[in-house]
Write a structure and sequence with these properties.
mainly alpha, 4 helices, 69% helix, elongated
Amino acid sequence: MEGTLGGLAFSVITAVVSKSYLPSFPYGHLIVLGILLGILALIGDLAESLLKRGCGVKDSGSSLSGFGGMLDLMDSLLFTAPIFYFYVEVLLKR
């Protein structure tokens, strides 16, 4: 539970700090994005773990020792990247 709340808090803090890289985003949008993407990153991690358990595999690769494979490094992007793209392209088009 602490890791989940800490990850969500870090996601919101990182989103707000990224204002210098995203100058057209209002702070309210950044906070919403931080919460939304933080939750979606967790869901992506859980979905990837569910796929691995369904296949009976502990690690999705062995090229990076100790990381569980390349899929474990990119699992949070499964849902966050498409939603961020949608958010920017559709909701912020003015």
